[in-house]
Amino acid sequence: MRELQVKKDLVSFCGLYCGSCGKYQKGKCPGCAKNERANWCKIRACCIEKRINSCSECNEFSNVKDCKKFDNFIAKLFELVFKSDRKAGIQMIKKDGYDCFARYMAENQLVSMKKQKA
Prior knowledge:
Elements: H1 22-25, H2 42-50, H3 73-82, H4 86-96, H5 98-107
Helix pairs in contact: 4-5
């Protein structure tokens, strides 16, 4: 297992962890917060506009799944294909904080929390 960086500034706006991403590790992406070419991302734009670090800090919705920017068609497709659970990531950040989330994701080499089987 390779040692990954544990840095809270590598937590994306939508609850992914850039520090575990292959593109970030190879220097091909600066991570979500610094990726100015990601102007297509509505979640990123929303968080920047609200001056918050992630959807976990948003007080507009009590449940992040109620946000149409967070829970759109592409997000649902991403969730299905990659068995990803960004909502669980946002919930963990809310509960345990950015440092704990970054440490958990790096230790488990995860970009996204994995969907739990029902």
